[in-house]
Amino acid sequence: MGRGNAENLHACEQQKMRALFVPFAPSLAHVSRCLAVAEAWRADKHEAIFALGEERGELVRSAGFETRIVPEVSGAAFRAQGFRWLTPEYFLENMEAERQILAEVKPDVVVHDFRFTTTASARLASLPSASIAHGNALRLALHPRETACLLIGEPGDPVGPASLRLRILRRIFPLIFEFIMRKLARRFAPTLKMCSLPAVGSLFEFLLADYILAADLPGMLPAQLPPRTCVVGPLLWSGWSQPAPWLDELDARPLIYVTMGTTLEARSVLAGIIDGLRDAPYNVVLSTGDISLAADLNLPSHIRVFSTLPGTTVMRYSAVAMHHGGHETLMQAVAAGVPSLMLPMNPDQILVARQAHQMGLGHSLWRAGDMPMRPRVRTPAEIRRSVDDLIENRDCARNCRSVQQQFAASCGAALAADILVRIVQTGIHGDELMRRKSSLAPRCT
Q: 287 has which bridge partners?
């Protein structure tokens, strides 16, 4: 590197940079990952501004960040409609809102998490972009058909009606899944053409930015990563670690922490868990979020229900975490060294739960052949038996402690913030980036 270039890089390192973070706000995990990186970015004396739907605006502002509002789908519509809300009109409306915000904020780099429009908006503004993604988002973007096979599972017994059904599903479902992903992507071809942007072959390709911050455990990432992918490791926001003084009131029985996210089916699943643990020799705490439970559940004294809980704090006191296979919830459990009992309810959760089970981080109650969008409901007896088994599983406890040590050695948010600085230093993006070799850290491919 010549002296002039070295001086320019040094000056870039010293100057205050500005990043615009654009998370998909209906899902808290996408917001909290951005908050984790933004806090590390701010700690390095740089400026972070958020653009998101108003539904999570107050949460971000309470963390001390300035916000701009985009016309985002509500959490209720997101959970109820699948991807039906992602219309060409919605796509264009959000691109226009993002472009106006980019023109006003003038960031040096744009960071998004699960936003389908932001990479396109950044390229139109000639700004470098980075997307935060876990391993399964990358699988869905790169290999939709192979990912669909994982959602069905492997045939077991080579004979019998159940095995035949599973084999048929493995032939048909991946083709249908890939067709749907391509059909959804074609909705936006006219908008991309109008903006002189290249078409994409599958819906999740919209999530791939100029650079990718892979926020996952190495064992949960695809074998082959896209170009310009930087493995930063899991991103946990410090805001989930808050005091919970009521924990001191619990007796010495093992604590079971239950949270099922905001999936539509979570209400009935939580009711089944309460029935399964009604007579169990454990302390049980449930986090319901915005889900209202039936008033006639007649809760026993060892089961407590909260609308919100400081998940990171409660995990540290738990013997088992029962959850939906949400990626962030699993990462909280891994960080605490706690085994997970997972009841996944949508495709992404099924993939996460399957991987965690294979890594020895817990058990999944999803079974091969369960329909990805309508998994079989587990009985209270199955739930109780699964909790008892996991409590006694010493091999799983050892695996969790081992991965916990790897997690503790990582510094995902700080590494991500450092990579953003380097992205700004390169000064390249979009089509130009395709033609030039990146000068990122060695952990980037």
A: 259, 306
